[in-house]
Amino acid sequence: MAALIDLRSDTVTQPTAGMRDAMAAAPLGDDVFGDDPSVNALQEALAERLGFEAALFFASGTQSNLCALMSHCQRGDEYIVGQFAHTYRWEGGGAAVLGSIQPQPLNHQPDGSLSLADIEANIKPDDFHFARTRLLTLENTIRGQVLPLDYLAQASALALKHGLKRHLDGARLFNAAVVGAGVGGDPYAAARAITQHFDSVSVCFSKGLGAPVGSVLCGSAALIQQARRWRKMVGGGMRQAGLLAAAAHYALDHQVARLAEDHALAQRLASGLQGIEALAVEAPQSNIVFVGVKPEAVERAAGLLPHLKSRGVLATGIYQLRFVTHLDVDAAGIDRAVAAVREYFA
Ligand SMILES: *Cc1c(COP(=O)(O)O)cnc(C)c1O
Question: Which of 17, 153, 174, 280 suits 318 as a labelling partner, its CA being 20 to 30 A distant?
Fold first, then answer.
């Protein structure tokens, strides 16, 4: 049987041969003592490349975002966040449950941004009736969409004007950076063009970058010191974590620019699905393709995912299908996925 084409998420990737070699060769130590040279090297490399003083390695993006929010906000503080942002909707309510931090969710604009007017209207005056608005949290990419740089500059200026800190959930920061850099551009410089507008940034290595585990939070030395305390408290102090950090470091050095290939495959998939009567295909900006099922075709589409599975193609979604490209799929796999969808609707 042909290999599975797994388009459920970019988290499904296997470590590459080069990455496994880097892991096997990594010098290790006890990272709770700060002794793991591979963890330290990763933290220093990312902080430097993104223009921050310090960085901290985490077991997951959820843990990294949580510790960032808890470092910026105290009990009774509030963060402004998108309705569909990971830090609001997809992290189990951790900021509220564990941090006693109140979210102020806002609706998204069609491009994924939060309108500046909405942000400003939801910053509470200094009055004891209200939670203290302390933080603006954005996400980039969001739903695979890249937030414009001028928007980031404006949102950042607005936050600063009101004394808010600015956190970026950059789980897919490098997807946004590679789009911003364009062909032949420097993705690390493009990443800094984004991160310069934030006090802290969380980057996932277990998504498109292809590492098995891990996220890194960047910020000021003081913020990272605070985050280290929270990380220990939530059980995220790991020992010979350099085994994992070496994989992430390998990804940072070797698997950033190649994200452009994932984006090209997403385009290929979207074009292949164009013209299927039942479907409304959104033009992808990075590595995620959303495909709506037209209302009149919802019943007919009910068996699509099982059909795809029977053809060795995995995707997610019900009314809106989601296909995510990554380093373990190639053009032939995308063409097989397209053929399987076409076969179903034929
Ligand atoms: C995946 C993801 C995270 C972190 O998820 P973990 O599974 O906890 O690593 C955070 N934000 C966004 C936008 C994500 O896609």
Answer: 174
Q: Which atom of ligand 1 is nearest to the CA of 142?
A: 13
Q: Which residues pair with 217 in a beta bridge?
A: 56, 202
Burial 209-225 (b: 16+ CB within 10 A, else e): bbbbbbbbbbbeeebbe
Domain that residue 130 falls in: 17-254
Whether residue 180 has its Cβ less than 6 Å from ligand 1? no
The pTM for the full model equals 0.97
Ligand 1 test: best mutation among 8, 63, 86, most atoms within 8 Å of CB?
86
Residue 155 CA: distances (Å) to CA of 114, 135, 141, 226, 283: 9, 12, 16, 25, 25
Which residue's alpha carbon is nearest to atom 4 within ligand 1?
Answer: 61
Of 232, 237, 239, 192, whose CA–CA distance to 70 is shortest? 232
Q: Are residues 73 and 93 in the same domain?
A: yes
Q: Is the pLDDT of residue 225 over 60?
A: yes
What average pLDDT does range 301-326 have in this prediction? 93
Q: Is the pLDDT of residue 1 over 70?
A: no
What confidence tens digit (pLDDT) does each residue in 117-136 have?
Answer: 999 999 999 999 999 999 99
Q: What is the arithmetic mean of pLDDT over 181-186?
A: 94
Let me know whether 50 and 62 are in one domain.
Answer: yes
Tokens of 186: 């420097």
Token digits of residue 100: 């006693």
